Amino acid sequence: MTLDVREAAETREAPRPRREVTTAFVVSRIAVLAVTAAVLLYAAPPLVASRSWAALAVLAVTAAVLAFLYLTRRFIPAKYLIPGTVFLIAFQVFPVLYTVSTAFTNFGDGHRGDKASAITAIETGSVRQAPGSPEYSLTVALRDGEMVFLLVDPKTKQVSLGTGEGLTGLSGAQVGVTGKVLSAPGLTVLKAPEAAARAQEVSALAVPTRGGVIKANGLSRAVEGRAALTYDAACDCVKGEGDVWKADESQGYFVNAKGEHLAQGWQVNVGFANFARVLTNPTISGYFAGVFGWNLVFALASVAGTFALGMSVALALHHPRMRGTKAYRIALILPYAMPAFAMLLVWRDMFNRDFGLINQFFGLDVDWLGQPSTARLAVILVNLWLGFPYMFLVTTGALQAIPRELTEAASIDGATPWKAFRSVTLPLLLVALTPLLISSFAFNFNNFNAIALTTEGGPFPAESPQVGSTDLLITYTFRLAFGTGGAQFGFAAAISVFIFAIVAVISAVAFRRTRRQEEVYA
Amino acid sequence: MRMRALGVAALATLAFSATACGDNGTAQPSAAPSAASSGPASAPADKGNGKLVIWADPSRVTALKPFADQFGTENGVTVEVKEISKDNQQTFLTASQQGSGPDIMIGAHDWIGNLVQNGAIDPVTLTEEQKAAFPPIAIKAVTFDGQIYGAPYAVENVALIRNTKLVPDAPATFDEVVEKGKELKKAGKVKEVLCLPVTQKGDAYHVYPLFASAGGSLFGSTASGDPDPKKVLVGSPESIKAFGKLKDLGEKGDGALKTSITNENYIVNFAAGKCAFLVSGPWAMADVKKSGLSYDVTPVPAFKDGKPATPFVGVQTFFVASKGKSKALAQEFVANYVTNKDVAKALYDADPRPPALTAALQDVQASDPDAVKFMDAGKDGLPMPAIPEMQAIWEPFGIAETAVVKGGDADKAATAGQKAIDGSLKN
């Protein structure tokens, strides 16, 4: 098969270019290639700056391959395949691989960076002003091109010279009213903008003193501080405050003898711990069956409901004697055209017991979103309203493709309209629409917004505040991963892998069944 | 032949458009080429000098701009105030981690715990004089683990706002509030006893003064007086009793707390005269004033024989980002500019939350007496716990609240809440 195609392509290719190289073709090709190359080249400087040589190599190879591919006359099929493949890799394969690799780490709040930045954070976070030390007013100056601090003690008005070596007295300096040094012998005093332009150097200069270091605090003040905690590379631990915290590479924390850890941690590989946590978490395992069951019901009811309603409306409008179909179509598309995000919030408020439109309109006193059964009914109704225009659109399209002769022939053969629909129209519709129904199922299975923006998973039974009656797998695992312990990306990624597996299995089974069905009808 | 010419033309275009693109780049106009030539190490270090980046939420960007420009002129630097409107804390953390974050971030003080554990902010040294310019509760709020982590600029907390036409005198106890509300409802003058958002998922923030007055508490305290994440007290006997009190006020009891009253409708309902009492903060005042009602703001009163009804106090804060590129400039701005009265007033004008700076608050008092009343209502309040563990409290607490408001068993709800919190904190 493949060989045939290639041969065909090559045989057809030979006479082609001469005919088809038009100005528009050349210009468009140059334009597209130029943009691609510009994008690729634009990515280079940051990669050089961050010394990501591997990424840079990938970038260079990609650029070379793309340029080569589109500047030769060969590899015609590849020219068509490459753009799709690039986007597939960038937007599908890479995110999936990244999610899976994240699932093996403890990436999340408290574990975002590497160990070095955790150590920096611990040390800077523990710097306290030395007790009794003056609030120096700071002037930045240069001595032979090297930056120095001129420090004025606000109480004694005494001027000291701070350098990387230490603090020494300085005489002969002229001090202004605000405590700024105006001039000093042998030094070039920097004005505010000049100092600001060297802000990096100002931050970096540390003047050692007996008790700690003097560092700039802004551009006009300097403070003598002391780090209460310091990292000791020899024991790979943090010492201070009469305690020792040893680095624990399995947790990504500095832990002391009592098992307490410092707040700042780093990202480490935790193996299958996140997956084990999903499987052993009592809240997940204890309620999984219930949530999964409701999740299936929700997705199935959403798909079946929207399809049934959308199709009925489409059939009604497809009838040849229907008048004013355009107006009806516009009206029916409206829910689809409005932002679902806002509409979900509007629906939530309409279901409010005391102030909602629905109770007021029907004269009811139902706590719609406050009871499990009514809340479930409500979210399915809302989802039906939001989803049926889509089904209406695709069915309308599919109906155009079914020749009217077929139904006419059926009616001539004596079939009732219902029979004709059941045996002719519906099967032909399903051939075209089943893949869409399956993807709609997959979408609704993970329809986070439909729940999070209406019931937020509730109502919650008092005895299990973590699992609500309308919670889907995605909303309740989202709560576990992000709601309570800050953002836990590693754990969330592990959950995504599980949910992906579930949806993939369901979809695969469904697609297999469809193929069989297609074979029957095709 | 023709194709080769084509290739050359294409390459030339490529090179041309690439350089053009580089020149238009917003972030690093000159740094990018020099990065390639002068060695990679110096490139990122150069970038920060002479530029200060501030991230603020939309309502504050315009107010900050003139002061940022002034700071820029005085110090010969460019200051960029960037608007950020969604998921501010997470956006800041992610951007910081990648090195594309700001030098100064504006946010609520209860982020501090999480920002510190992610190494995203640095302590700020304020002079004794600067510290004294703020009320003690504002300084207490931005102090975490013994260090000050930002400069406060606005303080907010809830208070009791009442319709003075319906209730001329401020009730002395919360029991009176409920009694008066019920009376008015019976007389048909209002529709609801009290406007306090409960929602289907609970709202720990608004109900906390009542919970505290009934004796409930969230955390025990450490030796230094900070909340102790190891001692969660949501399921303690005192808290169970407090949940019982909320149940008495709930739908099966007095009907003062109702799940149908939500964050979307509670202020609107008060403004429309549907209830005589509103528990809310300074953010409600725009709507309340627009409605033309006569109103007064008083502290949320305690229950009869109860503990003080302490509200949560939130403090809006300027943070110095650890991974910012112009730290010296950021420190200069936060320590010396945010503590400036004019800046505080301008921020107040843009978004009327009571300024933290005492001098600015006094200035504002003449035109807006409510600001001082809100400040008074919160002066004995509880700074919202800034420890990261607080995130584990909100939801289980809220769900327990909703359960008892709907008439559920207080013991069961509080115990289940405690269990859920302990589970996620692994206590």
From TrEMBL, chain A:
Keywords: Cell membrane, Membrane, Sugar transport, Transmembrane, Transmembrane helix, Transport. GO terms for molecular function: ABC-type maltose transporter activity. One of its GO terms (cellular component) is maltose transport complex. InterPro entries: MalF_N (IPR035277), MetI-like (IPR000515), MetI-like_sf (IPR035906), TM_PBP2_N (IPR032550). It comes from Nonomuraea pusilla. Its main location: membrane. The keyword Transmembrane helix applies. The chain crosses the membrane at residues 21-44, 50-71, 80-98, 287-315, 327-347, 377-399, 420-443, 489-511. It is found in: Cell membrane. It is a multi-pass membrane protein. Belongs to the binding-protein-dependent transport system permease family. MalFG subfamily. Part of the ABC transporter complex MalEFGK involved in maltose/maltodextrin import. Probably responsible for the translocation of the substrate across the membrane. It holds the Pfam family TM_PBP2_N. The lineage of its organism: Bacteria, Bacillati, Actinomycetota, Actinomycetes, Streptosporangiales. This is Maltose/maltodextrin transport system permease protein. Coiled coil: none annotated. GO terms for biological process: maltodextrin transmembrane transport. Residues 292-510 form the ABC transmembrane type-1 domain.
TrEMBL record, chain B:
Keywords: Signal, Sugar transport, Transport. Residues 1-20 form the signal peptide. It comes from the Bacteria. Transmembrane segments: none annotated. One of its GO terms (cellular component) is ATP-binding cassette (ABC) transporter complex, substrate-binding subunit-containing. GO terms for molecular function: carbohydrate transmembrane transporter activity; maltose binding. InterPro entries: Maltose/Cyclodextrin-bd, SBP. Residues 27-45 have a biased composition (Low complexity). SUPFAM superfamilies: Periplasmic binding protein-like II. Belongs to the bacterial solute-binding protein 1 family. This is Carbohydrate ABC transporter substrate-binding protein, CUT1 family (TC 3.A.1.1.-). It comes from Nonomuraea pusilla.
